[in-house]
Amino acid sequence: MTTLKLEIVSPDRLVLAEEVEELQIPGKAGYIGVLPGHTPLVTELDIGEMSYKKEGQSQYVSIVFGYCEISSDRINILAEKAEKAEEIDFSRAAESHHRAEERLSNLQATDIDFDRAASSLKRAKTRMEVSKKTGNAHSNE
After folding, report:
1. CATH among 1.20.5.440, 3.90.1150.180, 1.25.40.10, 1.10.10.10 for 88-132
2. E-assigned strand segments in 3-108
3. What is the pLDDT of residues 37-60, one digit of tens each?
4. 3-state DSSP call for residue 119?
5. Would the pTM count as exceeding 0.85?
C-alpha cells in the first residue's frame, strides 16, 4: 500500500513522525483530505481535529493554527500547538471550555477580548472531542 510520510512539529517538540495512508486536516477554508499522490500544496491551518489512518486504524490529533506543506509523498505540518488524542487531559480541556464559555457569556464586560475567548472556546472544545476518541475521556456533561 502506498503511504505518505507525515511529520508534525510544534515549537517545543516533534509531535509525530509516521507513515500514513490518508489524512484530514483543518484548513482555514475547511477540511482537506490528502491521499498519496496529492498535488503539491501549502495551506494555513485553523483550530481543529486532524485525523489520519495508519494500518487501517484512525488516529486523531488536536491542531491549533499553523501551516501544512503537502507533496505527493510527504506532509509537513508546523503547528502552533498539536496534541495526540492520548496526550490530552480531558478534565483540563473541560475546565478551559467552561472558563471560555463564562467569558463569552459576559459580553458587557469591557475587558473581555471576544476573539481570544472565542478561540479559547474552540481550542478547548476540539481538545475535548479529540480526547474522547481514545475512550479515556470521562465527560461530566
Report:
1. 1.20.5.440
2. 4-10, 13-20, 22-27, 30-34, 41-45, 48-54, 57-70, 74-84
3. 999 999 999 999 999 999 999 999
4. helix
5. no
